[in-house]
Amino acid sequence: EVQLVESGGGLVQAGGSLRLSCAASGFTFDDYAIGWFRQAPGKEREGVSCISSSDGSTYYADSVKGRFTISRDNAKKTVYLQMVSLKPEDTAVYYCNVFLFRAYWGQGTQVTVSS
Fold this sequence. Notes:
This protein starts with a strand and ends with a strand. By secondary structure, it is mainly β. The chain contains no helices and eleven strands. The strands form two sheets. Strands 2, 4, 5, 6, 9, 10 and 11 form a seven-stranded mixed β-sheet that branches. Strands 1-3-8-7 form a four-stranded antiparallel β-sheet, with no helix packed on it. The chain is about 0% helix and about 55% strand.
């Protein structure tokens, strides 16, 4: 069974930092790209970042470039999202995602940035 479990969210002041983790199981982790998405209240879910399976290449949404860093540890089957210089507009539930014939999602972790 494919499972994704996010952790690391919390309440932080603007300018602060958090590191999110996504622990994966139930599939060959090394073979798949993993993505981070977020959904703010009243808004659609949006892509934040993703990391490839092969060469570790990364993608970032323009809104987080230069502030967020995605990485993966294949031995631990975990993907991380280091977030610095957080802004109130980063407040959202953050989800990790993998696509194996269909999309799988974790339960999400809440990030709240106060001004």
